[in-house]
Structures are given as C-alpha cells and as structure tokens.
Amino acid sequence: MFIRTENFSQYVRAYPVVTFLLALNIGIFIYTLIPGIGNQLFLFGLGDNFLIANGEYWRLITPMFLHGGFMHLLFNMFSLFVFGPELEKIAGKARFITVYMLAGLFGDIATYFVQPAAYTHVGASGAIFGVFGAFGALVYYTKHAFPQLRQVILPIIVISVVMTFVGTNINVTAHIAGLLTGFLIGLSFFNPKNIVSWRKK
C-alpha cells in the first residue's frame, strides 16, 4: 500500500498534488540556499509569533513551505512522498490538499496561541501530521476491514508522536494540532460509502 513502485512519469501523472507539493518545498529550499536573496526569503516566511501579533499574518501559512536544513526537508518530503499518494488516491485531489493545507494552517495557528511571543518555527510537519491524522480517521471507520492499513499506519502515528516529544527543536504544538486537524477532517471525508468505493478499486 505504501510501497512506491511507479516510475517518475507514472508518479507525476497519478499523484499531481503530492508531486506539486514535493517540487514546491524542494524548490523553495534550494532557493533559500542562494546567498543573500535566499536568506531574505527565509526570513520573510519564517513563523515568528511576535511579527504575527504585529499584523504579518502570512506567517501563519508560509512556514509550512520552509525548512531549517537538509535533514528537516528530507524527513518531511520522504513522509509526503511515501504516504501522500495513497491519501490523494483515496480522498481525491481537492480533499487531499484540504487536509494538507488546513492541518498546516491550524498547526501554525495553534503555535501562535500556545507558544511564547519570541517563538519562531518552520517546516511542513504540521501538514504531514495532518496526513497521518486523516489516515487515522480512515482506520477508525474501517476498523478491522483493512488490517494492513491498521497495522502500518497506527505504529507510524504512535512512533511519530513519541518522537515529537523526545526529539529536540521540534514544534510539538504544530505536530499535535496538525494530527488532530487531519483526523477531524478525515472523519468528515471518510464515510462508509466512500470506503466501499475505495475497496472496489
């Protein structure tokens, strides 16, 4: 289910939204490496609670497209590359991008209200956790109907949450808020009719 066997062109055609998000995040990261102008872009989009409080509300969205280093980008994009396609196929393009964007947005909003004024952050992790949360909703509805999905996604969610709390320099608030947002949206998206139609594919 989560093993990708498509070649590049097949992947792009089958999962255009995931492909676009991968290209956008990687492209922006490469741009931020350019001396001078890259740093300006990074600072312009950085999630900064103090600046948000002073009216720079775009910083509730832009942090989810910025990353603090190569390993940060690699972890998030690998998760999107592996888990995103199945959710895009099941939920559809519009619903997938809704989960992704709203989970990232509410993760950043929660960060603004929970973290101190001096707190800064970047990363797509809140949106990625939203994808996990949506899968959690699917597992909730299917219960024992799809044991393979349950056996894979539940350990992934548990391990991801544990690593959120034991790791360093991690935006715990965005992770948990993104996960809950994805789960709640998933509950509204995945009803028995949708699940039956997916099972027939």
From TrEMBL:
Annotated TM spans:
12-34, 64-84, 96-114, 120-140, 152-168, 174-191
Q: Where in the cell is it found?
A: Membrane
Supply the InterPro entries for this chain.
Peptidase_S54_rhomboid_dom, Rhomboid-like_sf, Rhomboid_protease_S54
Keyword Transmembrane helix on entry: yes
Give the GO terms filed under biological process for this record.
Answer: proteolysis
- Domain of life, per the record? Bacteria
Q: What is its main location?
A: membrane
Q: How does it sit in the membrane?
A: Multi-pass membrane protein
The question of whether Protease is a record keyword is answered with yes
Which GO molecular function annotations are given, in alphabetical order?
A: peptidase activity
List, for all copies, the residue spans of the domain called Peptidase S54 rhomboid: 55-190
Its keywords, alphabetically, are:
Hydrolase, Membrane, Protease, Transmembrane, Transmembrane helix
The Swiss-Prot or TrEMBL record describes its family as follows: Belongs to the peptidase S54 family.
List the protein's name: Rhomboid family intramembrane serine protease
Source organism: Sporosarcina ureae
